[in-house]
């Protein structure tokens, strides 16, 4: 009797450990991601966001409605941290921490730089906007499954901020203020 209880107990422990291992291997649907650029003087700009997948969904004009504020990713709000004063699309952005939102439209996008930080992605307060900046929009030659933000360096003190997903690429220039 004692031996059978021991075997049952060991069996339950093995099942529980296997279930735990499987649960830990499961990747989140929108994993965390980071985009960053370091300028020639060592100053850094970093964007932290969550990276959803298309998963056979219509994204812009579907899952992400046109002409409405979008959290620009998934989960927690997308954050921008800069060690240096910037000019983004011609607009001055002082060094510090911000939240990024966008307003996607069919033919244009607007980047919103918001002073509120640390909130969930859907907790947008327009009164906290530092700036609303027009973005250039082009069509990607092929669909992109994973939502992606990048900061592509194009000089010692400048980069292109790119937001890509599905067949859309929205971009704006980022420059270090001297």
Can you offer a commentary on this structure?
The protein is mainly beta and 178 residues long. It has one domain. The chain contains one helix and nine strands, in the order αβββββββββ. It has a nine-stranded antiparallel beta sheet, with no helix packed on it. The chain starts with a helix and ends with a strand.
Give the tags.
single chain; about 180 residues; mainly beta; nine-stranded antiparallel sheet; about 50% strand; globular
Measured between the Cα atoms of the first and last residue, the distance is 80 Å
Strand order of the largest sheet: 1-2-3-6-7-8-9-4-5
| Structural category | mainly beta
How many beta-strand runs? 9
- The tally of domains stands at 1
Helix fraction by DSSP (H/I, runs of at least 4): 10-25%
Report the β-strand fraction as a percent range.
Answer: over 45%
Helix run count:
1
Mean pLDDT: 89
Rg over CA atoms: 21 Å
| Main sheet properties | 9 strands, antiparallel
Could you give a short description of this structure?
Helix content is 13%, strand content 48%. It has 178 residues and is mainly β.
Topology readout:
Blueprint: H1 2-25, E1 32-38, E2 44-50, E3 78-82, E4 86-88, E5 91-93, E6 96-104, E7 109-114, E8 129-155, E9 158-176
